[in-house]
UniProtKB/TrEMBL annotation:
Protein name as annotated: DUF4255 domain-containing protein
Renumbered residue ranges of the record's region Disordered: 182-225
Organism per entry: Streptomyces noboritoensis
Domain Pvc16 N-terminal: 4-180
A Pfam family matched in the record: Pvc16_N
Annotated Basic and acidic residues bias: 212-225
InterPro entries given in the database record: Pvc16_N
Amino acid sequence: MIHEVDEVLKRLLGGGALAGSGIDVSFDAPTRDWAARRNAPVVNTYLYDIREDVDRRQRGHMPVRDERDVVVRRRRPPRWFRLSYLVTAWTKTPQDEHRLLSAVLATLLTRELVPPAELPGALGALGLSMPVTVAGTRTESRSLAEIWSALGGELRPSLDLVVTVPFPAYPEYDAGPAVTEGATVRLRGPDSGPPQSSERSHRPHQVATARAAREAAAADRPDPR
């Protein structure tokens, strides 16, 4: 699922901020060695944190429907995870890097929610939209200074990008066949004769009426004692 999120981000940036520029999108860790090896402008989108969004956790089961809108399977609700990316621009001058970051920000601000039709593979099969937040309030415990220190580099201007992703919870199981007929109630005479009536209904009040008639018929039977 994470690699599918990478595909979505690369397509969003490549079709927006970087369209026609020839600038690549990288997901490598922006370490000193990586920075020394690069020889062209690049936008780096580094995944530095993964954790569950517990506020979105749900209980119970969800129906899975076929093309006729009939429930054929049931599954547990997906678990949602926050994928945090550190987005930086790498060029020869700070001014060009700022322009790139500005273009990336303008692109992502218009895509607060990515619909299922634009999500690939198993991610799109869930039928759920994917929220995207950029340059928002940080909720992760690590500071940017700690992240850059761990990478062995100097602090640079960056955008904090958070993608909230649904992950399927397994297993799924088959649902029972759909109910196509109502309940059938048969009443017999006092001497266990042939049925007096037959009724088929989906309505609870009709079933209750039939039950009352059956009890009345039983009350009219002679006492065997």
